[in-house]
Amino acid sequence: MNLTLKIWRQQGPQDKGKMVDYKVSDISEHMSFLEMMDVLNEQLINKGDEPVAFDHDCREGICGMCSMYINGEAHGPDRGVTTCQLHMRMFKDGDTITIEPFRAKAFPVIKDLVVDRSSFDRIQHAGGFISVNTSGNTQDANAILIDKHDADTAMDAATCIGCGACVASCKNSSAMLFVGAKVSQYALLPQGQVEAVDRVKNMVAQMDLEGFGNCTNTGACEVECPKGISLENIARMNREFLSANIKS
Ligand code: SF4
Ligand code: FES
Asked: What is the overall mean pLDDT for the chain?
């Protein structure tokens, strides 16, 4: 396949940035999108040009690093996959592909396609954990019986990889699908009950502090989420938040 790539280039956080056109040729349909980007970067390095900066780590859909907005969609045109799992067979010979960073006030661009998503880390630090008492008398977690449906729903919420596609797809740059998933994975389990009130209040407060918008139930986040995180998690977080405010 021969392709034209229109890629966002931005030297640093203060640079205005612009779209730049590149040509790549002999791209196999079996390549992943990131492998295609590797081909481009090799081409640029050989010419003495600066390669395109983009984030990646696991390249198997686990780490959530490969944040790219491809042809107007977070993680590109396929469903239920991250950019590293997107295959070039989703495109045709002669296609023009537009590649931009995830855009949101709370995700400032560091360089080219790399954005700073440390706002997600700070939300996690505000309550996305359970404290474990290591007194020596702590009960084995596996000894606590958990309803199968609750265990499965908590596991589904826990598959959120913190990629930020939900924020990038939302017209309000809302992080509520991410925070809803992180709150839900503990809210559904007995181990999460001890700190439940503080958790939801602190995580929501940090989310607001970081400058994410509110949810207006458009549902774009659920459609673009590579892990199929359900909007039900936002509803559960809202219930948890209301109940925490009544209790405290
Ligand atoms: S909810 Fe989905 S889109 Fe949002 S951060 Fe988690 S995995 Fe990514
Ligand atoms: S590089 Fe890890 S999810 Fe894509």
From this structure: 96
